[in-house]
Amino acid sequence: MLTIYKRELSAYFKSLTGFVYLAVFYALSGLAMLLFLVYYQAVASQPYSYSSLPDFSMVFQYLFFILVLLVPILTMRLMSEDKRQKTDQALLTAPIRLFSLVAGKFLAAYTIFVLGMASTFLQALVVSSFSSDFDWLSTSGNFVAILLLGGAVIAMGLFLSSLTESQVIAAVVTYAAVLVCILLDAVAAFCPEWLATILNAISLQKYFNQFTLGTFQLTGVLFYLSFMGVFLFLTVKVLEKRRWS
Amino acid sequence: MIEVSHVTKKYGNIVAVDDLSFSVKSGEILGFLGPNGAGKSTTMNMLTGYISSTAGSLTIGGIDILEDPVQAKKLIGYLPEHPPLYPDMTVQEYLYFMYSLKGVRIPREPHITEICELCRIKDVYKRLIRNLSKGYKQRVGIAQALLGNPPVLILDEPTVGLDPSQIIEIRSLIKALGKHHTVILSSHILSEVQAVCERIIVINKGKLIADGSPESLSRSISKDHRLLVRIKGAQKDVNSALSSIPGVKAIKCLGVKEPGTVDFTLDPEEGTDIRPLVFERLVSRKLPVYGMRSLEMSLEDLFIRLTGGDDSVIEDLKKGGKS
What is the ipTM of this complex? Predict the structure, then answer.
């Protein structure tokens, strides 16, 4: 697993994907931060502002969309490129378990994602140093949420990448899938109740919003973890199925 | 060492490998011969656990590749048809990566240095694989298969893309490896397999059609060679001289290849050596012979012979293989 992990991590920086991802992520999350500060300043300057607390959750609302926009770029080549280059023959005929292969790739993409999120953590540190009543509790809840969400999207992207030889198809399908997962909320509003319950239960955004509102819910954590688990499991099965078909 | 029994592989309705059975003893170099699309690569991919068989079983060193893939794969070094190389890595990085991917226990530096010397890739060691020529890529692929000294080596067309001197090098390398390893080597070049292998298996359309030593194979196919002669003289003189030689089944004029001469091919009747007769006849007609040689049977001819209802050849091969 460590071998695959190291190889994939170095591949991100050799193919520039890692650099580009991090650069764009830093730029966009910096922009989110800027918007937050401008908004906060405007609110704080009003004489009877309803809140003097900097609610950092707003940044995470932006980050949600940035993440959805960027993570498919991280995952698109993970599996499809091996198939196209035929290097999957080396990986699949090596004496390793399929799960450690999948897990190594997942963790490499996740590491890049966490490297991106680290900048937001620094921003939170900076903001908190200027504000005596910075709400670390809700902010850390937000961090947990976004780290879980990232993992879920990466797992799904990894799975979709294993279905195709083309990076472009992998990326496009991942975008579509992520968008569907987000729009489920909106669709649920028009659906009969029984269907709405199901759709809400599998909506990526619903659980995320609960975290940004400042509530820490175990169901949300479990949801994201099982979401990841299911897609990693499915990826292993795709590799296995290729052997069996 | 390797047991393949009643293996069938279907892709949808297409049968790629059809009820194939053979076994390879430890230390044997087995040549796997067949035209394109015969099922060579498919069989090798099944042996290495890359794809599964639709029916039948494959065992490596007594371990079923589907039941305990991790243990079975430890015994195999595999060079696929397209060497599985990462173009963004240097040769060194790639070999280090494969070394740890395979979980090799031999000390790394001396082991990799030794393999690089064997495969002669030391001078490209620090270069990106992307920039290597096809021959070097192929050799890095072979080096990768040798990592960890696996007892079984499976090489899918190892000399493709190499220049003639490299081909000779790689062949002698494979021969040397065959002393300590069990080797399966596929090819569609008859002479290559004859030069390297102790035993040859011929498959066509997924079916085993011959299994024997190279000697028995060449004996049975060289029994009545077609003869090519180049003679100085006019076409009709030569034609009349050749037409009535006893033992010649058919003659065919190939036209003028060299000014003042004509080329003919002669098909002898089975079991007769017509060369002295042809020579004497041409001398008696005062027609100088510029060249005379047996046409080597190509793999295509071999297949036509093996598959075209000529059972005697197959019988011969089977006998030869057993003796």
Answer: 0.85
